[in-house]
Amino acid sequence: MMNIQKRLKQLSFASMAGMFLILVMGALVTKTESGRGCGDDWPLCNGKFVPAYTIESFIEYSHRFVVGVVGLILLATTILVFLYSKRKDAKWYVGGAMLFTVLQAILGAMAVVWPQSSAVLALHFGFSLLSFAFTLLLYLVFTRFGEAMNQGGRTRLSAGIRWAVWGVLIYSYVVVYLGAFVRHTEAVGGCIGWPLCNGEVIPEMVGGTTVVFIHRVAAALLGLSILALFLFIRTQASPGSAVYRAALYSLVLVILQILSGGFVTLAIGYDIYLVASLLHAVLVSCLFGVLCYLGITSLYTAEQSKLQAYAAPRLP
Predict the structure, then answer these.
(1) Which residues are part of the catalytic machinery?
(2) Is residue 131 part of a domain?
(3) What number is the average pLDDT over the span 102-125?
(4) What are the pLDDT digits (tens) for 20-44?
(5) Average of pLDDT values for 247-252?
(6) Do 204 and 133 fall within a single domain?
(7) In angstroms, rounded to a whole number, what is the distance separating the alpha carbons of residues 160 and 155?
(8) Structural domain that includes position 281
(9) pTM to 2 decimal places
(10) 41 within a domain of the structure (yes/no)
(11) Is residue 308 scored above 80 in pLDDT?
């Protein structure tokens, strides 16, 4: 049994690391405009199993190859989890990861064969992000963080804060989608300069400027929301609890995320732009993963509160 548990932990880690790599490579495909590097063919590349070497075809086909390998690893993980794991939450997480991995693969194939709108293409990153989040939660189940997650960090959060956690989590996904939408349009240079947009606090809302400015405002509101959430959580959770640490990490990551957004804008037109864009994608993936952990942990604080209330002595 110990060998099985060790194998489950190893496979879940491989799935999580693979999904993270898929996210980064997907961002690389978008930023280098390599999505059409294999033409309209799928799963072949320009009609060949091993395509002729071009930068675009290499990037696109490498991305497809990694998705295939990680998909097989996740499939093996799914089978072992359902056969040998007694954790119901692990089965939910691996099932969610498999579902969104299949969806993002289908959407990716459709984008190659049939040209899609920017709104649909942005969903591809969104599905990949959900797959990563589920594999992250799955891996944490088999670590000490999983035990802390189950216990809710032995913290009692009010219902209002628990609702706020999930509200911020859902809103963060909306902000991520807006960012992915910006990447898939010609709006990237809509706002020149940072933190001002085209030298103005509120720029003229035309074309790509509108899209980028809305994303900036949404990102700023997300930062303020996470700051407020952390300040509320620290009034009810001890510094050593899982909830407190997750809220603190979320605050640090959202600050870094906002700064990296500024870095992306200032790097437009320079060789470092690609690095800045990939850093932005990495940070948003980490932020969303930590927020998901915070959301799940907050659910267990609700169960902890119910148990403590039930165990409390009742006055006659």
Answers:
(1) 60
(2) yes
(3) 72
(4) 999 888 888 877 766 666 666 666 6
(5) 96
(6) no
(7) 14
(8) 152-316
(9) 0.85
(10) yes
(11) no
